[in-house]
Design a protein that fits this description.
The chain is about 30% helix and about 25% strand. It is an alpha+beta fold and about 180 residues long. The chain has one domain: 60s Ribosomal Protein L30, Chain: A (2-Layer Sandwich). The strands form 2 sheets. Strands 1, 4, 5, 6, 7, 8 and 9 form a 7-stranded mixed β-sheet that branches. Strand 7 (about 105-110), helix 3 (about 120-140) and strand 8 (about 150) form a beta-alpha-beta unit. Helix 1 crosses helix 2 (about 85-95) and helix 2 packs across helix 3.
């Protein structure tokens, strides 16, 4: 079975990262608190952190910066069906979204694809995948539907425009839209 990697605001329980000063691989787990802090405007933000598999927490607190997390989530090729690996990743997100520090905030689940395929196809696929993540958060974690919006951007907002077909562009991004409106 072929699988496609789609970056979603999701986090594996244990990620491998390359330390800046060494060639050896270390294990660094991104925690629920990492996700909460990335999405909470009251949290003192460290510089942006990148984890293995393209997962990024944004620590930029400038006026135009989004409180967001980019994460990879695996979907079967040409599918929006959540895989077992995807559920593991989304479970970390679900726990974070239930945290008291994020009560009162609404979030956008933004689906993105790489540049392979037509504009129309990628648009529809990104919408289906973002909606699948939204439904999982609602059904498995009891997140209120009105707190979560799903939107697809297809290939219109590439994370790495210099490498349009790279897997880093296939992602779901979680954005705190309440905090963005308050800025």
């Amino acid at each position: 079975m072929k699988t496609a990697t789609f970056m979603v605001c999701s986090l594996p329980l244990l990620l491998h990262t390359l330390p800046a000063s060494a060639g050896e691989v270390s294990k660094e787990a991104i925690s629920k608190d990492d996700i909460v802090c990335a999405l909470d405007p009251k949290c003192a933000k460290p510089p942006s952190r990148s984890f293995n598999r393209g997962i990024t927490t944004t620590g930029d607190t400038t006026k135009d910066a989004s409180l967001s997390v980019n994460l990879y989530v695996n979907f079967a090729y040409d599918s929006a069906k959540l895989t077992a690996d995807t559920r593991i990743i989304l479970d970390r997100l679900g726990v974070a979204l239930r945290d008291d520090r994020l009560n009162g905030f609404s979030f956008m689940i933004a689906g993105h694809t790489d540049a392979k395929g037509s504009v129309e196809y990628n648009q529809t696929l990104s919408e289906r995948r973002a909606e699948a993540v939204r439904e999982y958060m609602i059904s498995q974690y009891g997140i209120k539907a009105e707190r979560l919006a799903a939107v697809g951007y297809g290939k219109s907002k590439l994370l790495d425009p210099d490498r349009p077909e790279d897997g880093v562009n296939r992602r779901v991004q979680i954005l705190n839209v309440t905090a963005a409106r308050q800025r």
